[in-house]
Design a protein that fits this description.
globular, 3 domains, 26 strands, single chain, Alpha-Beta Plaits, 7-stranded mixed β-sheet, about 20% strand
Length: about 500
């Protein structure tokens, strides 16, 4: 690579601008352009992130306060799962249970072994929809200490566009009509309605269209054998929904509510909620899905988009001088908001391999990305191992095959805690994430887990007891309503 190298990011959704900003921040002296079509809209009416989003913001220079103000962002403490198990549970990130002994997740093992409910793993203030009052925000209003957010997709796209331009990234508005391929299976140029573009390297962020990478022979690896979701309707709602007992209060979590033939998400941003029903069309039509949602909410909805998809990932997201990221490279389903986090991970891997890349670099990259998407596949599949059998869909789900890697891990984990080495290094979801969901779904033999914990030395037990007491004490700290905290940040920035 030299400073005269030219890179085009094709596609201007979240994935496109995230990829462009990471590349430009890593190699500030090279030319990075985004070619997008404003005729093509973004997917979704609200978006959520994983903790990888904070790493991205820090890397490219976006403050949390700016995100909250410009993109109507809200705090995300995790995902609240309703009707997946006997009790609602929070797959949380805001108040993680920490501490280990020789790689063993010490405190988590203690809580699960003692069969403490998942809801008690997190601070009680979260269940009150409150956030700890952080005095330092008055001194450093751009910071929050929060690792995950919800944001308005349209406003985020506008913000990332302007921010990219301010960083020296050129943005062209054009619709690609042709991709020209060389005899050695490289992209030589791409043609738009307005002009022809010639670059050294291309990042395909064209979503489900996969305009560039499909021309080079990338093949889709479907996960449909394990994951049955294949359609979605998405729609916005106001904060006046009758099902929300807090009225116009802003929840600190994404809601994932199990429905008759899938599940519904609710993503709260500053002035509205983004919603969607992800479903298996073998058991329900889009019209029936809309009616089920309306019956649940108690009012009509206006469907913004109706999407069809095949869950899976490309076998080779990087071929020749093209690398696909975002929805172009993989899409499982939005249950754990993995899409943006995957894009971020992919792009950081890409920039680490991009300088003087060769076949070995490309093969290693593809192997690493496949490991990430397999990890997401397994984690999502885990959520569907429920005790529900009350509808034809949930009965069918109970009979669905599991990925071999997940099945093998579950056999190990039933009687011992998951540890980091079980999952490998190229993952989006770690042993903590798997443990929380497993415990919520009653998949552990807690007597065996307690036996494992009891074999640890006394100093490990003392540490665990101390940390659990610290957590109890932390629950007593000053906390204020989530909306109040957001309002304060919006005035300070």
């Amino acid at each position: 690579m030299n400073k005269n190298m030219k890179i085009a990011v094709v596609g201007g959704g979240t994935a496109g601008f995230v990829s462009a900003l990471i590349i430009k921040s890593t190699f500030p002296n090279i030319n990075v352009d985004v070619i997008r079509s404003t005729k093509i809209g973004t997917i979704g009416v609200g978006e959520g992130s994983t903790e990888h989003w904070t790493k991205f913001m820090d890397y490219v220079g976006i403050t949390a306060g700016t995100l909250i103000k410009e993109c109507d962002a809200t705090f995300k403490a995790g995902i609240m799962f309703e009707d997946w198990s006997k009790e609602p549970y929070l797959q949380n990130v805001h108040d993680p249970v920490v501490g280990d002994h020789m790689g063993y997740p010490l405190i988590l093992g203690k809580l699960i072994g003692e069969n403490v409910p998942v809801k008690d793993f997190v601070g009680k203030y979260l269940w009150r929809n409150e956030t700890p009052y952080m005095k330092f925000i008055e001194e450093r209003p751009g910071e929050t200490g929060v690792s995950q957010y919800h944001f308005n997709t349209a406003k985020l796209n506008e913000f990332l566009t302007n921010f990219s331009i301010s960083k020296g990234i050129n943005v062209f508005d054009d619709e690609i009509t042709r991709v020209n391929i060389s005899e050695r299976n490289d992209v030589t140029s791409i043609e738009g309605e307005k002009q022809t573009y010639d670059y050294d390297f291309y990042v395909d962020c064209t979503g489900f269209a996969r305009l560039l990478i499909k021309e080079l022979g990338a093949e889709w690896q479907s996960y449909s054998k394990y994951l049955k979701m294949k359609e979605a309707i998405v729609f916005p709602t106001e904060y006046t929904d009758t099902i929300d007992p807090r009225g116009k209060e802003i929840p600190m979590w994404t809601l994932a509510k199990a429905m008759d033939a899938g599940w519904m998400f609710r993503i709260p941003v500053w002035d509205r909620k983004g919603n969607g029903y992800i479903f298996d069309s073998d058991f329900i039509t889009a019209e029936e899905a809309q009616k089920e949602v309306e019956n649940y909410l108690g009012h009509g909805i206006e469907v913004a988009k109706h999407l069809k998809f095949d869950p899976g990932a490309l076998d080779k997201p990087w071929i020749g001088n093209v690398c696909a990221t975002g929805l172009s490279a993989s899409f499982v389903e939005p249950l754990e908001a993995s899409s943006i986090g995957t894009t971020i991970q992919q792009t950081f891997l890409l920039v680490s391999r991009l300088i003087n890349y060769n076949d070995q670099s490309v093969n290693l990259y593809n192997k690493e990305v496949n490991e990430i998407t397999d990890n997401i596949r397994d984690f999502i599949a885990l959520h569907y191992i429920t005790e529900r059998r009350d509808t034809p869909f949930w009965k069918a789900v109970s009979e669905t095959s599991l990925p071999e890697s997940l099945e093998q891990n579950l056999q190990m984990w039933k009687t011992r805690m998951p540890v980091e080495k079980d999952l490998g290094s190229n993952i989006l979801f770690n042993e903590y994430n798997f443990s929380i969901v497993m415990h919520a779904l009653n998949l552990f033999d807690t007597d065996k887990i307690l036996e494992q914990y009891n074999h640890l030395p006394p100093d490990a037990h003392e540490f665990a007891e101390r940390k659990c007491q610290e957590k109890i004490n932390f629950d007593q700290i000053k906390a204020i309503p989530h909306k109040m905290m957001l309002g304060l940040l919006r005035t300070l920035v």
